[in-house]
Write a structure and sequence with these properties.
heterodimer; A: alpha+beta; 6-stranded mixed beta sheet; 5-stranded mixed beta sheet; B: mainly alpha; MetI-like fold
């Protein structure tokens, strides 16, 4: 067993190391080149030590970025098990019908399973060609050789930071190489039940946006017998609420170079205390189970919920059962605006035997979907690509556009290898603090200590 | 594939062995290779799927091991040493999760030994629709853990669940946090597990009860034994081997508890209901620290081996009494 694993790892590492020819070229040089020639170079670079294939691929990718090679099929994996999956499938179906010689097969796994299955699939040569990963997973998967650098792909498509939201674009880098092409940005947002607001004598067209307004609105709801804002002790939605508030109170999750957790700051404690305050003041039941706040909002029991933009369609479907809802940016509770967000990114998997035709087809696929991301936006997302986000079609998506107003204030989880492990610890810390099994400071301190150990272990693991 | 490589046992020898196999003394020295040939297919399977992976795992546990990284540094016993102290983050998490597994086993094993025995004794009596009830008690066991996990999560939800609603109807507290606070989370996990798996133990007990010769009970009747005495001096001693089996299997499966915690409590509050297997899965398959994960597995395996030895010792002493 042992020799096989080593041999496999060896050949794969050769593939993911940047090739000599690629390093000799600067990024600017790439940008000057035509799409077709650039793609050829990208593919030659990807070929690594295996040699050849470059010229062939240059033929496969036509001058205006069309795929002209022999018919190929691409395996495309992602974790959209919810209501957004069918939206993406529809876009993929349209891609397939418009591209005769590319057949994309989409395979959906639950995210947690996706992130543990894809590495083993890639290492055994059974991995997909293209996938979607969250921003905070890119660095870990890059360091582990699951996904490959996309600098040449991006250059061949003549894409650069001017085409995307700058924050999310720069977050796709690991060790100065690009590993993700951003598809969307999905921030946290504020949803409110208009019916319950009216019941409490509040103006449903003027949702609270400051700490004082929020407190006043919750008081009014309370007097009408409504628990306004249910506080979940779980990542969905308590964790994201904590991150957003931490940034609002001027804190941050990690230090500058992401070697230490800093959420156990005064800002972190203020964030927890505000959340616990909602429970203590009776605006939330105690010790909520997972998803209880979501079920309650769908059933019209709580007036306010802070939840991901991806819930838009879930709430729209609940209109049939009488839910009357609206959206607004996350209220500013702390001293500055701050909202958690993540992003889905296209990634290309490392293959033991890279097929230049498949790679050419992959870049056509990624670019096409990115251009069509307006359809993806209706699944409850903000397109990462500027031309799509600034289009009149996007402006017509009222809720999405409202949440897009927050883009100036959004923060992403930093992209370093092993960051998901560290984030698991703050998830636990928030759970303990909100459930009250530990004092806020203690819970955050303990979580920071465990996260620092996890980050140290990751540094040992990936930077050796 | 592995099976077909084993040489087939000569058919003649098999028949001869089966017919002459009486007492142990009669067989000694005469059977030669035959028993080993019979054992060979299983031995091959055991070696390929249990022994070899275990040895490989031991090797992994001596390294900082991520199967995707080309460099897997040898660290000797460091992964084990980190587990021995609660000073390290990983050791601390590990012993907390071992404690969780221990508590769960402690609460669930006695219930899973006693309740199925009572159910089996009732189901062993003759009454109308007996077969139907036997099926009913066994039914939950055929469901997967994902099914029962989701089912109980809905039932147990403190705010929208059926259980608290029913509690409210009969005047009991209707705001019990079944999945997010202790001790309720343990009550929920143990109850769900007992409901789910009691059918299996019941079936084993039932088979054992049906094996007890009726004349033993008749003799007890003649001696004027009351029902309790019949249970204590006929049923229990006759069930001794079955009890040993059921106890061992139940302890091992309780110690391997994973899905219920993952789905019903998600380890909450904090990580207090995160079991050892849950942590091992997270460490190895989530964080890709397979060296740590295999070291944890071996420590857990050592604990389980010792527990099994204790159980065997206990029943052996019972047998001598």
């Amino acid at each position: 067993m042992e020799p096989t694993t080593q041999g496999r790892a060896g050949s794969r590492s050769a593939l993911w190391q940047p090739s000599q020819s690629r390093q000799a070229l600067t990024r600017r040089n790439f940008l000057r080149m035509s799409a077709g020639a650039g793609a050829g170079l990208w593919l030659a670079g990807c070929g690594g030590g295996s040699g050849g294939g470059g010229g062939e691929a240059a033929q496969a990718l036509g001058e205006n970025g069309e795929y002209t090679g022999p018919a190929v099929s691409l395996a495309f994996w992602n974790g959209f098990t919810g209501g957004d999956g069918p939206f993406l499938q529809e876009i993929v179906d349209r891609f397939n019908s418009e591209h005769e010689n590319i057949a994309v097969e989409m395979n959906v796994l639950e995210w947690a399973q996706f992130y543990s299955t894809v590495p083993s699939a890639v290492s055994s040569g059974e991995g997909p060609d293209v996938g979607i990963m969250h921003l905070d997973q890119l660095a870990t998967n890059a360091a582990r050789g699951v996904i490959r650098p996309l600098d040449e792909l991006v250059a061949s498509l003549q894409l650069d930071e001017g085409d995307f939201d700058p924050t999310v674009w720069s977050a796709g880098l690991y060790q100065e190489q690009r590993y993700g092409v951003p598809l969307d940005i999905h921030p946290f947002g504020f949803y409110y039940n208009k019916g319950l607001m009216e019941e409490a004598g509040l103006d449903p067209e003027a949702p609270p946006q400051t700490a004082d307004e929020y407190a006043t609105a919750l008081e009014a709801l309370s007097e009408a017998g409504i628990q306004g804002h249910w506080v979940s002790p779980f990542l969905f939605t308590g964790g994201f609420t904590f991150y957003s508030l931490l940034w609002q109170f001027g804190g941050d999750l990690f230090n500058e170079d992401t070697t230490e957790a800093t959420w156990n700051s005064e800002a972190g404690v203020s964030a927890i205390e505000w959340m616990r305050g909602l429970i203590e003041d009776g605006h939330s039941p105690t010790e909520l189970a997972a998803d209880a706040e979501q079920v309650a909002f769908l059933n019209g029991e709580n007036a306010f919920i802070w939840n991901g933009i991806w819930q838009i369609n879930a709430y729209r479907e609940a209109e049939a059962e009488g839910l009357d809802w609206g959206v607004a940016p996350i209220p500013q509770i702390g001293d500055e605006p701050g909202v958690w967000a993540s992003s889905h990114n296209f990634v290309v998997m490392n293959q033991r035997d890279a097929d230049p035709n498949k790679q050419a087809a992959s870049s056509v696929f990624i670019n096409w979907i990115s251009e069509q991301s307006i359809d993806w936006a209706s699944a409850g997302q903000i397109p990462a690509r500027n031309e799509v986000r600034e289009s009149p079609e996007f402006a017509e998506l009222a809720e999405q556009s409202t949440f897009a107003e927050q883009l100036e204030a959004v923060h992403f989880i930093p992209t370093v290898p092993g960051i998901p492990d560290a984030m698991l610890e703050i998830e636990t810390g928030v759970n303990e603090a909100i459930l009250g099994t530990k004092e806020p400071q203690q819970a955050l301190d303990d979580a920071a200590e465990r996260a620092n150990a996890a980050l140290e272990a990751a540094r040992e693991q990936y930077e050796a | 594939m592995a099976v077909s490589q084993a040489p087939p046992a000569p058919p003649g020898a098999a028949v001869a062995d089966a017919t002459t196999g009486g007492t142990r003394t009669a067989r000694s020295g005469s059977s030669g290779l035959v028993p080993y040939l019979f054992l060979a297919p299983y031995l091959v399977l055991f070696s390929v799927f249990v022994l070899a992976p275990a040895v490989y795992g031991l090797w992994i546990s001596l390294h900082r091991w991520d199967f995707l990284l080309p460099v897997k540094p040898f660290v000797g016993l460091q992964n084990y040493l980190n587990l021995l102290t609660r000073e390290t983050a990983v050791g601390n998490s590990f012993w907390e999760s071992m404690g969780a597994t221990g508590k769960f086993s402690l609460f669930s094993v006695p219930l899973l030994l006693v309740i199925p025995l009572l159910v089996a004794m009732v189901l062993n009596k003759k009454f109308p629709a007996r077969t139907f009830f036997r099926a009913v008690f066994f039914a939950p066991y055929v469901l997967g853990v994902a099914v029962i996990g989701l089912l109980w999560r809905f039932l147990l939800d403190p705010n929208t669940g059926l259980l608290n609603y029913l509690f409210g109807l009969v005047g009991l507290p209707d705001d019990i946090p079944w999945t997010t606070a202790l001790p309720w989370a343990w009550v929920a996990l143990v109850a769900a597990t007992v409901w789910w798996t009691l059918g299996f133990n019941t079936v084993i007990y039932l088979a054992g009860l049906q094996e007890i010769p009726a004349d033993l009970y008749e003799a007890a009747d003649v001696d004027g034994a009351n029902p309790w005495q019949k249970f204590r001096f006929v049923t229990l001693p006759q069930l001794q081997r079955v009890l040993l089996f059921v106890t061992t299997v139940t302890v091992l499966s309780s110690a391997n508890m994973f899905g219920q915690s993952l789905l019903i409590t998600q380890g909450a509050p904090g990580t207090q209901t995160r079991t050892a297997i849950m942590l091992i899965a997270q460490e190895g398959l989530g964080s890709f620290r397979m060296g740590n994960a295999t070291a944890m597995s071996f420590v857990l395996a050592l604990f389980l081996s010792l527990t099994s030895l204790l159980i065997f010792g206990f029943f052996r002493r019972l047998g001598e009494d």
